[in-house]
Write a structure and sequence with these properties.
Oligomer: single chain
Radius of gyration: 24 Å
Order of helices and strands: HHEEEHEHHHEHEEEHEEEEHEEHEHEH
Number of strands: 16
Strand content: 15-25%
Helix content: 25-40%
Shape: elongated
Largest sheet: 9 strands, mixed
Distance between the termini: 16 Å
Length: 427
Protein backbone atom coordinates (compact mmCIF):
# COMPACT_ATOMS: atom_id res chain seq x y z
CA UNK A 1 0.00 0.00 0.00
CA UNK A 2 1.07 3.55 -0.65
CA UNK A 3 1.40 6.12 2.13
CA UNK A 4 -1.79 7.72 3.43
CA UNK A 5 -2.85 11.29 4.02
CA UNK A 6 -5.38 12.00 6.77
CA UNK A 7 -8.25 14.44 6.18
CA UNK A 8 -11.47 15.19 8.03
CA UNK A 9 -13.58 15.15 4.86
CA UNK A 10 -15.45 11.82 4.61
CA UNK A 11 -15.99 9.91 1.40
CA UNK A 12 -19.54 9.42 0.15
CA UNK A 13 -19.23 5.67 0.77
CA UNK A 14 -17.05 3.66 3.12
CA UNK A 15 -14.34 2.02 1.00
CA UNK A 16 -15.28 -1.47 2.21
CA UNK A 17 -18.86 -0.90 1.06
CA UNK A 18 -17.89 0.50 -2.32
CA UNK A 19 -19.51 -1.18 -5.35
CA UNK A 20 -19.59 -0.41 -9.05
CA UNK A 21 -22.79 0.53 -10.88
CA UNK A 22 -23.74 -2.76 -12.50
CA UNK A 23 -26.53 -1.31 -14.61
CA UNK A 24 -24.23 1.33 -16.07
CA UNK A 25 -21.55 -1.26 -16.85
CA UNK A 26 -24.07 -3.53 -18.54
CA UNK A 27 -25.45 -0.67 -20.62
CA UNK A 28 -21.93 0.28 -21.73
CA UNK A 29 -21.29 -3.32 -22.83
CA UNK A 30 -24.54 -3.37 -24.79
CA UNK A 31 -23.87 0.04 -26.37
CA UNK A 32 -20.38 -0.94 -27.53
CA UNK A 33 -21.73 -4.23 -28.87
CA UNK A 34 -24.00 -2.31 -31.25
CA UNK A 35 -20.93 -1.30 -33.23
CA UNK A 36 -20.43 -4.34 -35.46
CA UNK A 37 -23.52 -6.14 -34.15
CA UNK A 38 -24.28 -9.43 -35.92
CA UNK A 39 -27.69 -11.02 -36.64
CA UNK A 40 -27.13 -13.77 -34.07
CA UNK A 41 -26.46 -11.33 -31.24
CA UNK A 42 -22.69 -11.24 -31.42
CA UNK A 43 -20.17 -8.72 -32.66
CA UNK A 44 -17.78 -8.46 -35.62
CA UNK A 45 -15.39 -5.57 -35.06
CA UNK A 46 -12.09 -6.53 -36.64
CA UNK A 47 -9.04 -4.56 -35.66
CA UNK A 48 -8.24 -1.31 -37.49
CA UNK A 49 -11.44 -1.37 -39.54
CA UNK A 50 -13.93 1.48 -39.68
CA UNK A 51 -15.97 -0.34 -37.05
CA UNK A 52 -12.93 -0.61 -34.80
CA UNK A 53 -12.46 3.16 -35.19
CA UNK A 54 -16.07 3.73 -34.16
CA UNK A 55 -15.59 1.50 -31.11
CA UNK A 56 -12.36 3.26 -30.18
CA UNK A 57 -13.95 6.67 -30.59
CA UNK A 58 -16.88 5.68 -28.36
CA UNK A 59 -14.71 4.31 -25.55
CA UNK A 60 -12.44 7.35 -25.66
CA UNK A 61 -15.47 9.66 -25.53
CA UNK A 62 -16.61 7.84 -22.38
CA UNK A 63 -13.13 8.19 -20.89
CA UNK A 64 -12.97 11.91 -21.64
CA UNK A 65 -16.42 12.37 -20.12
CA UNK A 66 -15.00 10.75 -16.97
CA UNK A 67 -12.21 13.34 -16.94
CA UNK A 68 -9.44 11.09 -18.23
CA UNK A 69 -6.44 12.22 -20.24
CA UNK A 70 -5.68 10.16 -23.35
CA UNK A 71 -2.38 8.86 -24.71
CA UNK A 72 -2.11 6.81 -27.92
CA UNK A 73 1.12 5.08 -28.86
CA UNK A 74 2.53 4.24 -32.27
CA UNK A 75 0.88 0.80 -32.45
CA UNK A 76 -2.50 2.27 -31.48
CA UNK A 77 -2.66 1.20 -27.84
CA UNK A 78 -4.84 3.68 -25.94
CA UNK A 79 -4.14 4.67 -22.31
CA UNK A 80 -6.56 6.86 -20.34
CA UNK A 81 -5.46 8.25 -16.97
CA UNK A 82 -7.16 9.39 -13.79
CA UNK A 83 -4.62 11.31 -11.72
CA UNK A 84 -3.63 10.25 -8.21
CA UNK A 85 -2.35 12.27 -5.28
CA UNK A 86 1.21 11.35 -6.23
CA UNK A 87 1.45 11.39 -10.01
CA UNK A 88 5.14 10.54 -9.87
CA UNK A 89 4.09 6.98 -8.99
CA UNK A 90 3.59 4.55 -11.88
CA UNK A 91 -0.12 4.05 -12.59
CA UNK A 92 -2.21 1.05 -11.67
CA UNK A 93 -3.60 -0.06 -15.02
CA UNK A 94 -6.51 -2.27 -16.06
CA UNK A 95 -7.87 -3.14 -19.45
CA UNK A 96 -8.01 -5.61 -22.32
CA UNK A 97 -9.07 -5.22 -25.98
CA UNK A 98 -12.13 -4.22 -28.01
CA UNK A 99 -11.35 -5.95 -31.30
CA UNK A 100 -13.29 -9.16 -31.89
CA UNK A 101 -13.31 -12.35 -33.88
CA UNK A 102 -15.36 -12.37 -37.13
CA UNK A 103 -18.10 -14.22 -35.25
CA UNK A 104 -17.24 -12.86 -31.82
CA UNK A 105 -19.32 -12.03 -28.79
CA UNK A 106 -20.07 -8.98 -26.66
CA UNK A 107 -17.82 -9.82 -23.72
CA UNK A 108 -14.42 -11.17 -24.80
CA UNK A 109 -11.99 -8.30 -24.16
CA UNK A 110 -14.75 -5.70 -24.02
CA UNK A 111 -15.64 -6.67 -20.45
CA UNK A 112 -12.08 -6.00 -19.30
CA UNK A 113 -11.96 -2.56 -20.91
CA UNK A 114 -15.37 -1.41 -19.76
CA UNK A 115 -15.01 -2.80 -16.25
CA UNK A 116 -11.84 -0.67 -15.98
CA UNK A 117 -13.87 2.33 -17.13
CA UNK A 118 -16.57 1.50 -14.60
CA UNK A 119 -13.98 1.37 -11.80
CA UNK A 120 -12.94 4.92 -12.69
CA UNK A 121 -16.54 6.11 -12.95
CA UNK A 122 -17.20 4.65 -9.50
CA UNK A 123 -14.18 6.45 -8.04
CA UNK A 124 -15.50 9.67 -9.55
CA UNK A 125 -19.01 9.08 -8.22
CA UNK A 126 -17.65 8.72 -4.71
CA UNK A 127 -14.96 11.43 -4.96
CA UNK A 128 -12.26 8.91 -4.02
CA UNK A 129 -8.64 9.95 -4.45
CA UNK A 130 -6.00 7.29 -4.96
CA UNK A 131 -2.36 7.63 -4.04
CA UNK A 132 -1.11 6.42 -7.46
CA UNK A 133 -2.78 7.31 -10.75
CA UNK A 134 -5.31 4.81 -12.12
CA UNK A 135 -5.52 4.04 -15.82
CA UNK A 136 -7.54 2.04 -18.29
CA UNK A 137 -6.07 0.70 -21.52
CA UNK A 138 -7.18 -1.10 -24.62
CA UNK A 139 -4.60 -2.89 -26.72
CA UNK A 140 -4.45 -3.15 -30.51
CA UNK A 141 -5.15 -6.44 -32.32
CA UNK A 142 -5.33 -8.87 -29.43
CA UNK A 143 -7.41 -11.34 -31.42
CA UNK A 144 -5.13 -11.63 -34.44
CA UNK A 145 -8.14 -12.35 -36.64
CA UNK A 146 -7.15 -9.76 -39.25
CA UNK A 147 -3.41 -9.37 -38.68
CA UNK A 148 -0.85 -11.68 -37.09
CA UNK A 149 0.73 -12.02 -34.61
CA UNK A 150 -1.99 -12.18 -31.99
CA UNK A 151 -1.69 -9.88 -28.95
CA UNK A 152 0.15 -7.50 -31.26
CA UNK A 153 -0.29 -4.22 -29.38
CA UNK A 154 0.77 -5.57 -26.00
CA UNK A 155 3.53 -7.59 -27.66
CA UNK A 156 5.01 -4.50 -29.29
CA UNK A 157 4.63 -2.62 -25.99
CA UNK A 158 6.54 -5.37 -24.18
CA UNK A 159 9.27 -5.49 -26.80
CA UNK A 160 8.35 -8.98 -28.02
CA UNK A 161 7.73 -7.79 -31.59
CA UNK A 162 9.59 -4.88 -33.22
CA UNK A 163 7.25 -2.05 -34.18
CA UNK A 164 8.45 -2.27 -37.79
CA UNK A 165 7.51 -5.95 -37.98
CA UNK A 166 4.03 -5.23 -36.67
CA UNK A 167 3.61 -2.32 -39.09
CA UNK A 168 4.46 -4.58 -42.03
CA UNK A 169 1.87 -7.27 -41.18
CA UNK A 170 -0.78 -7.58 -43.89
CA UNK A 171 -4.37 -8.74 -44.03
CA UNK A 172 -5.87 -10.91 -46.78
CA UNK A 173 -6.25 -7.85 -49.03
CA UNK A 174 -2.61 -6.81 -48.62
CA UNK A 175 -3.35 -3.83 -46.37
CA UNK A 176 -0.70 -3.23 -43.71
CA UNK A 177 -1.10 -2.43 -40.04
CA UNK A 178 0.73 0.86 -40.50
CA UNK A 179 -1.54 1.91 -43.38
CA UNK A 180 -4.68 1.06 -41.46
CA UNK A 181 -3.55 2.78 -38.26
CA UNK A 182 -2.92 5.94 -40.25
CA UNK A 183 -6.19 5.61 -42.16
CA UNK A 184 -8.36 5.42 -39.05
CA UNK A 185 -6.32 8.03 -37.18
CA UNK A 186 -4.87 5.83 -34.45
CA UNK A 187 -1.15 5.93 -35.22
CA UNK A 188 -0.14 7.79 -32.06
CA UNK A 189 3.13 9.48 -31.24
CA UNK A 190 4.11 7.78 -27.97
CA UNK A 191 6.81 5.14 -28.26
CA UNK A 192 5.41 1.73 -27.19
CA UNK A 193 6.89 0.49 -23.93
CA UNK A 194 7.84 3.89 -22.56
CA UNK A 195 4.56 4.28 -20.70
CA UNK A 196 5.11 3.27 -17.04
CA UNK A 197 2.97 0.60 -15.37
CA UNK A 198 3.01 -0.01 -11.63
CA UNK A 199 0.70 -3.03 -11.79
CA UNK A 200 -1.69 -4.43 -14.38
CA UNK A 201 -5.05 -6.16 -13.91
CA UNK A 202 -7.22 -7.75 -16.58
CA UNK A 203 -10.80 -8.85 -15.97
CA UNK A 204 -12.05 -11.38 -18.51
CA UNK A 205 -14.65 -14.01 -19.16
CA UNK A 206 -13.19 -17.45 -18.53
CA UNK A 207 -13.79 -18.70 -22.09
CA UNK A 208 -14.06 -22.17 -20.60
CA UNK A 209 -16.57 -24.19 -18.55
CA UNK A 210 -14.92 -24.63 -15.13
CA UNK A 211 -16.37 -21.73 -13.12
CA UNK A 212 -19.90 -22.38 -14.35
CA UNK A 213 -19.56 -26.11 -13.73
CA UNK A 214 -18.35 -25.48 -10.17
CA UNK A 215 -20.92 -22.68 -9.57
CA UNK A 216 -18.11 -20.26 -8.65
CA UNK A 217 -18.39 -16.50 -9.16
CA UNK A 218 -14.73 -15.49 -9.44
CA UNK A 219 -11.63 -17.19 -10.78
CA UNK A 220 -8.32 -16.07 -9.27
CA UNK A 221 -6.09 -16.69 -12.27
CA UNK A 222 -2.77 -18.25 -11.33
CA UNK A 223 -1.12 -18.28 -14.73
CA UNK A 224 -1.65 -18.47 -18.45
CA UNK A 225 -0.61 -21.89 -19.69
CA UNK A 226 2.58 -22.27 -21.66
CA UNK A 227 1.95 -23.44 -25.24
CA UNK A 228 3.93 -25.46 -27.77
CA UNK A 229 2.65 -26.10 -31.26
CA UNK A 230 4.15 -28.79 -33.45
CA UNK A 231 3.70 -30.21 -36.90
CA UNK A 232 4.22 -33.97 -37.04
CA UNK A 233 4.88 -35.61 -40.41
CA UNK A 234 4.75 -39.40 -40.77
CA UNK A 235 5.98 -40.84 -44.07
CA UNK A 236 5.17 -44.36 -45.22
CA UNK A 237 4.24 -45.61 -48.68
CA UNK A 238 1.02 -45.58 -50.66
CA UNK A 239 -0.23 -48.98 -51.77
CA UNK A 240 -3.44 -50.57 -52.98
CA UNK A 241 -5.88 -51.23 -50.14
CA UNK A 242 -6.91 -54.59 -51.58
CA UNK A 243 -3.79 -56.53 -52.61
CA UNK A 244 -1.48 -55.26 -49.83
CA UNK A 245 -1.54 -57.56 -46.74
CA UNK A 246 -1.84 -55.83 -43.39
CA UNK A 247 1.56 -57.01 -42.17
CA UNK A 248 3.29 -55.62 -45.27
CA UNK A 249 1.82 -52.13 -45.21
CA UNK A 250 3.69 -48.91 -44.48
CA UNK A 251 0.55 -47.17 -43.30
CA UNK A 252 1.36 -43.61 -42.27
CA UNK A 253 -2.12 -43.00 -40.88
CA UNK A 254 -2.12 -45.95 -38.51
CA UNK A 255 1.24 -44.90 -37.12
CA UNK A 256 -0.02 -41.33 -36.83
CA UNK A 257 -3.05 -42.41 -34.81
CA UNK A 258 -0.76 -44.04 -32.27
CA UNK A 259 1.05 -40.71 -31.83
CA UNK A 260 -2.28 -38.90 -31.56
CA UNK A 261 -3.39 -41.24 -28.79
CA UNK A 262 -0.08 -40.72 -27.01
CA UNK A 263 -0.61 -36.94 -27.14
CA UNK A 264 -3.82 -37.43 -25.17
CA UNK A 265 -2.18 -39.91 -22.77
CA UNK A 266 0.65 -37.48 -22.04
CA UNK A 267 -1.83 -34.69 -21.32
CA UNK A 268 -3.88 -36.94 -19.03
CA UNK A 269 -0.71 -37.91 -17.18
CA UNK A 270 0.00 -34.20 -16.67
CA UNK A 271 -3.27 -33.44 -14.85
CA UNK A 272 -4.75 -31.15 -13.77
CA UNK A 273 -3.27 -28.47 -16.03
CA UNK A 274 -1.87 -30.53 -18.92
CA UNK A 275 -3.60 -30.11 -22.28
CA UNK A 276 -3.00 -32.11 -25.46
CA UNK A 277 -4.83 -31.58 -28.74
CA UNK A 278 -4.59 -32.79 -32.32
CA UNK A 279 -6.71 -30.33 -34.26
CA UNK A 280 -5.62 -30.53 -37.89
CA UNK A 281 -4.89 -33.64 -40.00
CA UNK A 282 -3.87 -33.87 -43.66
CA UNK A 283 -3.80 -37.36 -45.19
CA UNK A 284 -2.14 -38.13 -48.54
CA UNK A 285 -3.39 -39.21 -50.99
CA UNK A 286 -6.71 -39.16 -49.11
CA UNK A 287 -8.26 -41.85 -51.26
CA UNK A 288 -10.74 -44.47 -50.13
CA UNK A 289 -8.83 -47.47 -51.48
CA UNK A 290 -5.21 -46.36 -51.00
CA UNK A 291 -3.11 -47.05 -47.91
CA UNK A 292 -2.04 -43.55 -46.76
CA UNK A 293 1.55 -42.76 -47.68
CA UNK A 294 1.99 -39.62 -45.60
CA UNK A 295 0.18 -37.76 -42.85
CA UNK A 296 0.79 -34.28 -41.47
CA UNK A 297 -0.98 -33.26 -38.27
CA UNK A 298 -0.82 -30.60 -35.60
CA UNK A 299 -0.05 -31.11 -31.91
CA UNK A 300 -0.90 -28.55 -29.23
CA UNK A 301 0.64 -29.02 -25.76
CA UNK A 302 -0.12 -26.71 -22.83
CA UNK A 303 0.69 -26.67 -19.14
CA UNK A 304 0.98 -24.29 -16.21
CA UNK A 305 4.78 -24.05 -16.13
CA UNK A 306 7.50 -24.22 -18.75
CA UNK A 307 9.04 -27.12 -16.82
CA UNK A 308 5.79 -29.09 -17.10
CA UNK A 309 5.63 -28.41 -20.85
CA UNK A 310 9.26 -29.54 -21.11
CA UNK A 311 8.29 -32.86 -19.53
CA UNK A 312 5.44 -33.32 -22.01
CA UNK A 313 7.78 -32.48 -24.87
CA UNK A 314 10.36 -35.03 -23.68
CA UNK A 315 7.72 -37.75 -23.29
CA UNK A 316 6.44 -37.16 -26.82
CA UNK A 317 9.91 -37.23 -28.37
CA UNK A 318 10.79 -40.45 -26.54
CA UNK A 319 7.61 -42.13 -27.77
CA UNK A 320 8.19 -40.99 -31.36
CA UNK A 321 11.77 -42.26 -31.35
CA UNK A 322 10.64 -45.67 -30.11
CA UNK A 323 7.76 -45.81 -32.59
CA UNK A 324 10.01 -44.93 -35.53
CA UNK A 325 12.38 -47.74 -34.54
CA UNK A 326 9.51 -50.20 -34.20
CA UNK A 327 7.76 -49.39 -37.50
CA UNK A 328 10.61 -48.25 -39.70
CA UNK A 329 8.62 -45.23 -40.85
CA UNK A 330 10.04 -41.71 -40.94
CA UNK A 331 8.52 -39.48 -38.23
CA UNK A 332 9.44 -35.79 -38.19
CA UNK A 333 8.42 -33.49 -35.34
CA UNK A 334 8.75 -29.74 -35.97
CA UNK A 335 8.23 -27.08 -33.29
CA UNK A 336 6.35 -24.28 -35.08
CA UNK A 337 5.46 -21.96 -32.20
CA UNK A 338 6.28 -21.55 -28.53
CA UNK A 339 4.61 -19.31 -25.96
CA UNK A 340 6.11 -19.45 -22.46
CA UNK A 341 3.90 -19.90 -19.42
CA UNK A 342 2.99 -16.64 -17.69
CA UNK A 343 2.67 -16.99 -13.92
CA UNK A 344 1.00 -14.00 -12.30
CA UNK A 345 2.39 -11.95 -9.45
CA UNK A 346 1.65 -13.18 -5.91
CA UNK A 347 0.62 -9.74 -4.66
CA UNK A 348 -1.82 -9.25 -7.53
CA UNK A 349 -3.31 -12.71 -7.06
CA UNK A 350 -3.65 -12.05 -3.34
CA UNK A 351 -5.35 -8.71 -4.02
CA UNK A 352 -7.94 -10.46 -6.19
CA UNK A 353 -8.45 -13.19 -3.60
CA UNK A 354 -8.79 -10.72 -0.74
CA UNK A 355 -11.33 -8.71 -2.71
CA UNK A 356 -13.44 -11.83 -3.31
CA UNK A 357 -13.28 -12.72 0.38
CA UNK A 358 -14.11 -9.18 1.49
CA UNK A 359 -17.07 -8.88 -0.87
CA UNK A 360 -18.40 -12.37 -0.16
CA UNK A 361 -18.03 -13.85 -3.64
CA UNK A 362 -17.28 -17.54 -4.07
CA UNK A 363 -13.88 -17.94 -5.69
CA UNK A 364 -11.31 -20.51 -6.75
CA UNK A 365 -7.82 -20.65 -8.19
CA UNK A 366 -7.87 -21.27 -11.92
CA UNK A 367 -5.53 -21.21 -14.90
CA UNK A 368 -6.08 -19.67 -18.31
CA UNK A 369 -5.71 -21.94 -21.29
CA UNK A 370 -6.00 -19.01 -23.71
CA UNK A 371 -3.55 -16.19 -24.28
CA UNK A 372 -4.29 -12.64 -23.11
CA UNK A 373 -2.54 -9.28 -23.15
CA UNK A 374 -1.78 -9.94 -19.48
CA UNK A 375 0.82 -12.49 -20.67
CA UNK A 376 3.06 -9.76 -22.03
CA UNK A 377 2.25 -7.33 -19.23
CA UNK A 378 3.45 -9.92 -16.71
CA UNK A 379 6.92 -9.53 -18.22
CA UNK A 380 6.93 -5.81 -17.38
CA UNK A 381 5.01 -5.31 -14.14
CA UNK A 382 3.16 -7.18 -11.39
CA UNK A 383 0.10 -8.59 -13.13
CA UNK A 384 -3.12 -10.35 -12.16
CA UNK A 385 -6.25 -11.60 -13.90
CA UNK A 386 -9.87 -11.99 -12.80
CA UNK A 387 -12.14 -14.52 -14.46
CA UNK A 388 -15.93 -14.60 -14.45
CA UNK A 389 -18.06 -17.47 -15.81
CA UNK A 390 -19.48 -17.51 -19.31
CA UNK A 391 -22.46 -19.63 -20.29
CA UNK A 392 -21.49 -23.18 -21.27
CA UNK A 393 -17.88 -22.03 -21.48
CA UNK A 394 -18.52 -20.69 -24.98
CA UNK A 395 -16.44 -17.86 -26.42
CA UNK A 396 -15.30 -16.69 -29.87
CA UNK A 397 -18.92 -17.26 -30.78
CA UNK A 398 -21.89 -14.95 -31.26
CA UNK A 399 -23.80 -16.68 -28.44
CA UNK A 400 -21.05 -15.90 -25.88
CA UNK A 401 -22.76 -14.68 -22.69
CA UNK A 402 -22.16 -13.64 -19.11
CA UNK A 403 -25.01 -12.34 -16.99
CA UNK A 404 -25.34 -8.81 -15.56
CA UNK A 405 -24.72 -10.27 -12.11
CA UNK A 406 -21.53 -12.00 -13.27
CA UNK A 407 -20.03 -8.94 -14.95
CA UNK A 408 -20.93 -6.84 -11.90
CA UNK A 409 -19.15 -9.30 -9.62
CA UNK A 410 -16.01 -9.25 -11.75
CA UNK A 411 -15.92 -5.45 -11.90
CA UNK A 412 -16.38 -5.20 -8.13
CA UNK A 413 -13.35 -7.45 -7.67
CA UNK A 414 -11.37 -5.32 -10.11
CA UNK A 415 -12.37 -2.17 -8.21
CA UNK A 416 -11.10 -3.42 -4.87
CA UNK A 417 -7.96 -5.05 -6.26
CA UNK A 418 -7.02 -1.81 -7.99
CA UNK A 419 -7.77 0.26 -4.90
CA UNK A 420 -5.52 -1.98 -2.81
CA UNK A 421 -2.72 -1.58 -5.34
CA UNK A 422 -3.18 2.13 -5.97
CA UNK A 423 -3.65 3.09 -2.31
CA UNK A 424 -6.55 5.17 -1.06
CA UNK A 425 -5.92 8.63 0.32
CA UNK A 426 -7.93 8.42 3.54
CA UNK A 427 -9.96 11.36 4.81
Amino acid sequence: MSSEVISTTPYKTDICDLRINGERLWQSLMDLAQIGATPKGGCCRLTLTDLDKQGRDLVISWGKAAGLSVEIDQIGNVFMRRPGRNNALPPIVAGSHIDTQPTGGKFDGNFGVLSALEVIRTLNDNAIETEAPVEMVFWTNEEGSRFVPVMMGSGVFAGIFPLEVAYAATDTEGKTVEEELLRIGYAGEARPGQHPIGAYFEAHIEQGPILEDQDIAIGVVQAVLGIRWYDCIVTGMESHAGPTPMAMRQDALQVSTRIMQEVIAIANASAPHGRGTVGMVQVHPNSRNVVPGSVKFSIDFRNMTDAAVDEMDAALKTFIQQLAGETGLSIELKLVSHYPAAPFHPECKDAVRRAAQQLGYSHMDIVSGAGHDAVYMSMLAPTGMIFIPCKDGISHNEIEYSSPEQVTAGANILLHAMLESAGVVTR
